[in-house]
């Protein structure tokens, strides 16, 4: 039992180190040796736990946004019957300090930039974007007519991505409050909460 727990700790340390290494050095220079040094772990241990660099980096890419669904559920649970909080809850989730920082924004942008050319990263990008669009669609239920909801959800997701990418390239932009303000400004033109007539 102790061995399994230690293995999980080591894997998480390597994933965290990989995220930091990609953010600091870029994907090309985030070698197994660099990641090992960042984690203060022998490079051989990287191969022991993940097999190769791509598998480790794929795990790191997944880890960056893995907390989203849990955070969103927690935010919604505060007022589960109030549809007006869904969109603000989604924005709070995407720019929660637990997931949004200069390091995570920089690493995420590096992964997404090469995702058209690296199948492993492309699969993660595609899956996580579909999940985000689905979550945004849920957040917009009751706010826009169902026939337009996916379109708006895609627009929300694109706006969120834009703020993440901006945070990776503009000094000071990876500030949670600033990021929320950006999204609130972008989405200010969305229809107000109202009962949708399905008749």
What's the SSE blueprint?
Layout: H1 2-25, H2 32-39, H3 43-50, H4 53-65, H5 68-77, H6 86-94, H7 102-114, H8 119-139, H9 146-169, H10 176-186
Give a short summary of the structure.
With about 200 residues, this protein is mainly α.
Count of β-strands: 0
| Second CATH tier, the architecture of the largest domain | Orthogonal Bundle
Give unreliable regions as ranges: none
Radius of gyration based on Cα positions:
19 Å
How confident is the prediction overall: mean pLDDT? 89
Please trace the helix and strand order, writing H or E for each element: HHHHHHHHHH
Beta-sheet strand percentage?
Answer: under 5%
CATH class of the largest domain: Mainly Alpha
Keywords:
single chain; 199 residues; mainly alpha; Arc Repressor Mutant, subunit A; Tetracycline Repressor, domain 2; 71% helix
Notes on the protein architecture:
With 199 residues, the chain is an all-alpha fold. The chain has helices at 2-25, 32-39, 43-50, 53-65, 68-77, 86-94, 102-114, 119-139, 146-169, 176-186. Helix 1 crosses helix 7, helix 4 (53-65) packs parallel to helix 8 (119-139) and helix 6 (86-94) packs antiparallel against helix 8. The N and C termini lie far apart (58 Å). The model has no long low-confidence stretch (mean pLDDT 89).
